[in-house]
Amino acid sequence: MTLYVVKRLLQFIPTIFCISLMMFVILNVLPGDATTMSGGMKRQLDAKTAENMKKQLGLDKPLHIRYLHYIKGLVKGDLGKSYLRSESVNDLIAQRLKPTIQVSLAALLIAVGFGIPLGFVSALKQGTWMDTLSMVGAVSGVSIPQFWLGLILMYVFSLLLGWLPPQGYGGGSLVNLIMPAFTLGVGYMALIARTTRAAVIEVLSEDYIRTARSKGLSEWIVNRRHVFGNTMILILTTVGLQFGSLVGQTVIIEKLFSWPGIGSLLVDSIFQRDIPVTQGCVLVIIGVFLIVNLVIDLMYVIIDPRIQYK
Amino acid sequence: MNILEIKNLKTQFHVLDGVAHAVNNVSLSMEKGEVLGVVGESGSGKSVTALSLMGLVRPPGRVVSGEILFDGTDLRTLSEKQMQDVRGNRISMIFQEPMTSLNPLLKIRDQISEMVMRHNSISKKDSYDYCVEMLGKVQIPYPEKRAKEYPHQLSGGMRQRIMIAMALSCNPEILIADEPTTALDVTIQAQVIDLMLNLKEQYDTGILMITHDLGVIAEIAQKVVVMYAGQVVETGTVYEIFDNPKHPYTKALLDSVPKLGKRSKAERKRLREIKGIVPDLFTLGAHCNFYERCPDADEACKRIIPDLIEYENGSSVRCIKFQGRNA
Questions:
Q1: Rounded to a whole number, what is the distance in Å from the CA of B18 to chain A's nearest CA?
Q2: Contact A215 B102 (CB under 8 A)
Q3: CATH number of the domain at B2-90+170-317, please?
Q4: Is any Cβ of chain B less than 8 angstroms from the Cβ of A226?
Q5: Do A206 and B100 touch (CB under 8 A)?
Q6: Looking at beta carbons, which residues of chain B come within 8 Å of A216?
Q7: Using CB atoms within 10 A of its CB, is residue B211 exposed (0-12), middle (13-18) or buried (19+)?
Q8: Chain-chain contact of B87 with A208 (C-beta, under 8 angstroms)
Q9: DSSP type of residue B135
Q10: Nearest in space to B207 (alpha carbons), one of B190, B230, B191, B224
Q11: Which residues span the domain enclosing A186?
Q12: How many structural domains comprise chain A?
């Protein structure tokens, strides 16, 4: 088991290497660089200043030298220096990581906390109005674009009702967290609800459920002891993969709600061609994705006795 | 005394295509401690009869009418809660598929003990000990060790023995065995059957043995019910059914079984298949269900739905051509 974890962690290295290379090439062949974008699209630096800046940032060196330089830092855990800000990328990300993790975990909590029970109720009350209602809700949840939902929520709860602050981190207070987390989590919740429903229906048709009923157990016990665990096995992968991409989706939500996380940092850095920051953000998001996947795989070992890693 | 008496049981499946008459007016009875064999092809309604008896028919299926008298009480009048007290405790069931009939996530001892604890006031620890004892009774080697294992660590034969141990753990009055040997190797089949018979002697449990394997029936049953297309077509003692079958379907069924020891040229007979297929349960016509496949059918059979005629105590046949026991 430990060996397996070590092996999996070692596999991260080539993955991260490939992604860093791809990203480096793509970002550097994009038109425009930090000297032309730093002041926004409109204001151009004069030629001399731009030249100096390029020299200072090392942008005058050929691409492969720059990559080698970058990878050298990466090995040591140094993500480089921002072109435009005074802080190192490591510091920038360290400041921004917490809000992103907060909003992602809150979204996960909402999605799992509501999605799984909804899916269960739907499956157990198959064909009733409760099923129809929650599945209509789930389809809507999957289909609604996040930025639109976010705007509507802002309009209703901030402008009309004045219950929640429309934007900002507010020092991490709960009222500020509610709307971004909900907006981020709603599609995820809908997906989990649908996956859970399908999984429960599948599990209910299994022979061992019939066996459990033939023992005289009540429906509640059958569901709790026999349906639940087997359903979890079926939905765990979806929950994990989606959580990974959720962290990626924070890009939209954070921009919309002025949430000071990795996502908004990423968007800003792209517009400013602050390549080291962009790379740093993407690598962190990918790192989270990889770790979540590993955790999910390890959770299988806990739930399912048939799975063992060597 | 009859421990079980099913009268005019009808179970139907209401689906988009219409109504499937899976069990159509089935009546049968079983004495205490007796082995009753139920035979028939796939789709003849054997399993659905068993599930109806257990109260485990799930939608879109529904028991529509009839009585299921168990020890004098009609099980159909019981509430779900009362039925749960019967299930596993007084009537228990073994299923066809040992590979999928156990929950893959729970240890063997937990799967047995949850049933023992449901029906008896017994501590968890005692129920574990009892579980090991039961596993020993069904001849599982190293029962202490096996009890702590998961289903995937055991072979099919072993899992079926565990199902038997589980089904007998509350000392039921009736054990329903739905094709318990079908998914097993022939050698394992014999072991499982021997085991069931031994335990039956020990516990005086009545067994409702559902199978399409006539060999199994010949070996263990005292009485036989032959089912076809959701109906009982013939009942009788095992000797009557095997030596002097009355219904053309029973005859055809017996002719389709290879006989051991009949391989010399003189004695060898060509095996006869039953031509055609089981009729569609959605569109049963107003004639004998076996009409299309029956070698003896004539015009009269096309016009009449035959009744089950009892010609002797406990023996009956559903055929208009039947004239009397020695005809």
A1: 18
A2: no
A3: 3.40.50.300
A4: yes
A5: yes
A6: 84-89, 115, 118-119
A7: buried
A8: no
A9: H
A10: B224
A11: 94-303
A12: 2
